[in-house]
Amino acid sequence: MSLSAPNEVVTRALLRQVTVPGLDRPAALITLDNGLDHTKPNTFGPAGLASLDEAISAALAADPAFVAVTGKPYIFCVGADITSLPALADREQALEIGRLGHRVFARLRDAAVPTFAFVNGAAMGGGLELALHCHYRTLSGGAAALALPEVSLGLVPGWGGTQLLPNLIGIPAATQVILQNPLTQNKMLKPKQAAELGIADVLLEPADFLERSLEWAAGVVRGEVTVTRPEVDKDMWAGVLYFARQTLDQRLHGAVPAAYKALDLLETAKDADFATGTAAEDEALADLIFSEELRSGLYAFDLVQRRAKRPAGAPDKGLARPVTKVGIVGAGLMASQLALLFARRLQVPVVLTDLDQSRVDSGVGYVHTQIEKAVSKGRMDKGTAAKLYGLVSGSVDKSAFADADFVIEAVFEDLDVKKQVWAELEKIVSPEAVLATNTSSLSITAMAAELEHPQRLVGFHFFNPVAVLPLLEIVRGERTDDATLATAFAVGKQLKKSSVLVKDAPAFVVNRLLTRFLGTVFAAVDAGTPLDVANSALDPLGLPMRPLALLQLVGPAVAYHVGGTLHAAYPDRYPVSENLRRIADSGRPIVVEDRINDEVAQLLVVGDRPLTGEQVRQNALDALAQEVRLMLDEGVVAEAQDIDLCLILGAGWPFHLGGITPYLDRTGTAERVTGRRFLPHGVAGLPA
């Protein structure tokens, strides 16, 4: 029975003997390298584990002073080759994958000579678990990503992570790394954080990391360096896990099996011997590998890692024009966030304009304040800060845009206002300058209709908060040309955003779907469904926030405005809720400290046909299925994958749903509502 994937890129474990000053015999240094550059990280499939096993055997046979494992430049190892998991034929093969990793890694933990992990770069999943099996760990300050992200995909750290980490750094910190971080937009640890938690024994500069690691290891072997680790407090173990389970229930409502499996394994780690704990990991992995949630997670991971980097329908990047100066119309919060982002990423002059000097000063002041905060928190050096201060300026005179290559507006969401802005600017900027609108719902084609050069207007829709959400909807109007579009995609890439090409249709992708979703929930409220029932109806999906919290984040006034735009375009599917208008007009928060505001609830006028939570949920899913099918039929995006990518990156929808279309497929909603699936059988799900 072969466990190897047919297209596995094998990570080889390359062994060499290294003479280290002060030691009477050489050290064995194993370097993990798949033969590709840093953009293709080391991973472990069965062949890679076999190579490591052989290298450890050869290393130990040479009677070394110590054994150390490191990685190729910038990369230690990012874990298991997850692309091979769908090819596993049965549960026994899944069990064997877990057992193989445990057996090979345990050789470093059980070795009679000291073993070291020299973590020179990114270490995630099984890569970090390999390091945890070593007796000691050095860490480069230049390591880009450190994490155990498995739960976000629908797995658990199944090669010793759930057993080793809590007994190394304590249960509170381990719970953060194994559960909280993966479920918080897959948050990574920085090297300093990892060292402070105790994951690494020493943090070293990247410039001469290997040399310093060898010296440090020699000091440990000679007894000159003593590594002390605080005793793990097991008295708080049960309490921490009880709180963590409550938090999972409140947030996920049982929707992510991997999170609960990880919690159970962390509980096992308190008292069980290592063999018992790792056997439990094997069983958990085998269960999860054949779950629908994992298949959706792998599908979502592939979208984020691959499709997001090669946007469907993007024109030839060679058509893109250079951008040497950026203009931003408006100086409010969104405009100020954009100014900081453009200055940081493009490193070109950015100028803000607004109606009066006080607004301009406020916008520039916001940028300066954010720069100062970054410096004070150690996230930016003073030299970079000084440069950014000089790049961002403001003016009440739009002639400051005369030499700008890229101008984006972030003004009030009104078509006439935006058309007036572009009419004024077209007389000032060069004919080649790209004009970009950050509209969330208005027509790019209508906005460009009266321009002399309508081909250079493009939609450039960011999501709030700009610095956090990676999605950028790039909207092509009917007359937007390829050069403008190519420039927009090039700028999006420089901004480190994931861009998706979207047809000019009302509210584009994310806002159109979220508005339909919220509209269904509010229709239930209007009919007489209690707010708390409607608000909790979607809990089984494990969404990042409940509908009313989402409404508050978006802003009831904004949601009502976007809903009005969509009602004008599709009145049969987007009714106007008078209750939403009442909430928007009140200006009061709908949720206070995670509870529905009674004052807002009293404003509502409702019917006498309340729905159950299950009915609300099914209505919302049916509406999403219908809207996704219509969007695909209209060609709003190229494929269903782009809709899922938009929801993952723009709305934070979780990997275990695969965005939304895999969930609609596997629950039968897609076929029942639209007559067919969105994705073929076996894509983001178990084979038929």
Automatic annotation (TrEMBL):
The entry's keywords: Fatty acid metabolism, Lipid degradation, Lipid metabolism, Lyase, Multifunctional enzyme, NAD, Oxidoreductase
Span of domain 3-hydroxyacyl-CoA dehydrogenase C-terminal: 508-588
GO biological process: fatty acid beta-oxidation
Pfam families: 3HCDH, 3HCDH_N, ECH_1
Residue ranges constituting the 3-hydroxyacyl-CoA dehydrogenase NAD binding domain according to the UniProt record: 325-504
InterPro entries recorded: 3-OHacyl-CoA_DH_NAD-bd, 3HC_DH_C, 6-PGluconate_DH-like_C_sf, ClpP/crotonase-like_dom_sf, Enoyl-CoA_hydra/iso, FA_oxidation_alpha_subunit, NAD(P)-bd_dom_sf
Biological pathway: Lipid metabolism; fatty acid beta-oxidation; Lipid metabolism; butanoate metabolism
Gene Ontology molecular function, alphabetical: enoyl-CoA hydratase activity; long-chain (3S)-3-hydroxyacyl-CoA dehydrogenase (NAD+) activity; NAD+ binding
Catalytic activity: a (3S)-3-hydroxyacyl-CoA + NAD(+) = a 3-oxoacyl-CoA + NADH + H(+)
Source superkingdom: Bacteria
Family membership: In the central section; belongs to the 3-hydroxyacyl-CoA dehydrogenase family. Belongs to the 3-hydroxyacyl-CoA dehydrogenase family.
Designated name of the protein: 3-hydroxyacyl-CoA dehydrogenase
Organism from which the protein derives: Micromonospora rifamycinica
Lineage, opening ranks: Bacteria, Bacillati, Actinomycetota, Actinomycetes, Micromonosporales
